[in-house]
Amino acid sequence: MRRKKELMVGFLLILPALVVLVALYVYPLALSVYMSFVAQGRFSLANYLKVFEIYWRDIIYSVVISLVATAVTLGLSIGVSGYLRFKSWKFLEIMYKLPLFIPFLIVGHAMRVFLAPHGTLNNLLTRILRIEELPGLSRSWIGLVWAFVWVMTPYAALIVFGAFRSLDNAYIEAAQNLGASRWKIVFDVLIPMCRPSIMVAFILTFVRTISSLTIPIMVGPASPNMITVNMMFRVNYFNDWGTANALGVISYLIVMVFAIYYLKFMAAERGGIKA
Q1: Alpha helices in the chain (DSSP H)
Q2: Under 8 Å between Cβ of 214 and 108
Q3: Burial class (CB in 10 A: 0-12, 13-18, 19+), 150
Q4: Worst-scoring range by mean pLDDT, 102-111, 203-212, 227-236, 262-271?
C-alpha cells in the first residue's frame, strides 16, 4: 500500500512535465507523421514520391552542408578549447562567446552584408591584395557554411572546453613529464578522453544546422536549398502541408540516424552494447 502511494506521488510530480512533453512534442510529431501520408484526403505515399522526385538534390545538399559546417565548427572548437586549456586569454574567451548573444536573424543579415560582392570582407581583401574586384561569398554554399560556423562555434566550444577543463590535471602533467607538446596532449590525451562530450557537440551542432531556416534564406544560394527552406515554400506558396510534413519527417529521420549512433556510442563507452 505504501509502495503504491509513493508511486502515485511520483507520477503526480512528473505529470505536468509529461503533459507539456505530449502537448508540445509528441502530439505535433505524431500529427506531422500522419499528415505526411495523407494526399488529397487519402492515405498514400504521394507526398514522399513528390519529395524524392523534386527535392532529392536538396536533401543531399542539406546533409552535406550540415556535415561540412559541423566538421569545421568542431575543428575550430577543439582548437580554441585546446588553446584555452593551457593558456588563459580573456579576449579570446569573450570573442568566441559573442555569437551566443546574437539572434540568427541578425547573423543572417550581418553575414549577407559582410560576404556581399562589395561587402566588408571583399573591400578589405581588395585593398590588401590590390585587386579591383572579388566575387562575393553571399548567396553561395561557402557563405552559408561560413555563417553556420560563425554562429555554431560558441555552442560547440562551450561543451568541448568544459570537458577539457574538467579533465584531471594529473593526465596532462604526466604527458608533459614525458615531453609531449601542448597540441600532442590535445590530440592524444584530451580528445580521446573527452570523446563523449565531443560527440554531444557534434550531434547538437548538426541538429541546429540542418534545422536552421533564417540563415539559409538570407545567406544561402537560390538553388539548391536546405530542407527547411523547401518546407517553408511548400506551406507559404503552395499551401502543401503534406509535402512539407514529408520533408520534415525525412529531416527527422536523418537526425535520428546520428542520435541512434550517439546512443550506441555512449552505451559502448559505458561498457554496454558495442557500437
Answers
A1: 2-21, 27-36, 46-54, 56-86, 90-97, 104-114, 120-129, 141-166, 169-177, 182-185, 191-193, 195-210, 214-219, 227-236, 241-269
A2: yes
A3: buried
A4: 262-271
The answer to whether the CB of 228 falls within 8 A of the CB of 66 is: no
Separation between Cα atoms, residue 254 and residue 227, nearest integer Å:
11
Q: If you average pLDDT over residues 218-242, what whole number do you get? A: 92
How far is 162 from 240, CA to CA, in rounded Å? 44
pLDDT band at 182 (very low <50, low <70, confident <90, very high): confident
CA distance 102 to 257: 30
Strand (E) or helix (H) holding 43 = strand 42-43
Total-model pTM: 0.86
